[in-house]
């Protein structure tokens, strides 16, 4: 009886074939992930951003508790900039965010909404609590306050013009950032955003 064994060349061809298949599968997996990422970026409302890490900051909220942006990791997060006595844009922003949360239903508990004051003189804890109560956001938004020196670095990091609040100016940049679960910036909106579109985008980030 003659027994034959695979040659080294056969083993080499087999290894090459397996390697080719694995490389192809890896390429398909990467392409699928990239496609899903591009699709999710394209489906963001407003101006899509590249997912760069959102600048970290730490301030006190309207209840006096210390809050850091990193506390929201694991949740899609909205970061906006308001002042309690604003007669128009801030109210429009708050109303749109409240409507967005209403549209999310039970999923709203898995989304964080953070407002950073642009008025260190006027936004006392009492004024911010009253603003949140009027807007129906008392237990749904963290309104962060501080002194000019505490708030100004946050404005700068997020490209927010807030005037020099030491001179009483009220104009500020109309800005809303949408962050993913890892704190990456995914979209930039203005106060005229569509709550339905934002709620849809947040559901995708939650999923």
Mean pLDDT: 86
CATH architecture of the largest domain: 3-Layer(aba) Sandwich
Low-confidence stretches: 33-42
Radius of gyration of CA atoms, rounded to a whole number? 24 Å
Based on DSSP secondary structure assignment, what is the total number of beta strands? 8
Spatial order of the strands forming the largest sheet: 1-8-7-4-5-6-2-3
Number of domains: 2
User: What best-fitting shape do the alpha-carbon axes yield?
Assistant: globular
CATH superfamily of the largest domain: Glutaredoxin
CATH class of the largest domain: Alpha Beta
The CATH topology annotation of the largest domain reads as Glutaredoxin
Give me the strand/helix succession.
HEEEEHEHEHEEH
Give the strand content.
15-25%
Helical percentage: 40-55%
Keywords:
alpha+beta, 40% helix, 207 residues, 2 domains, 8 strands, 16% strand
Explain what you see.
There is one protein chain. With 207 residues, the protein is of the alpha+beta class. The chain folds into two domains: 1-42; 49-206, Glutaredoxin (3-Layer(aba) Sandwich), CATH 3.40.30. 40% of the residues lie in helices and 16% in strands. It has five helices and eight strands. Strands 1-8-7-4-5-6-2-3 form an eight-stranded mixed β-sheet. Strand 7 (176-179) and strand 8 form a beta hairpin. Helix 2 crosses helix 5 (195-206). The longest helix is centred in the N-terminal third of the chain and has 35 residues, at 8-42. The model is unreliable at 33-42 (pLDDT under 50).
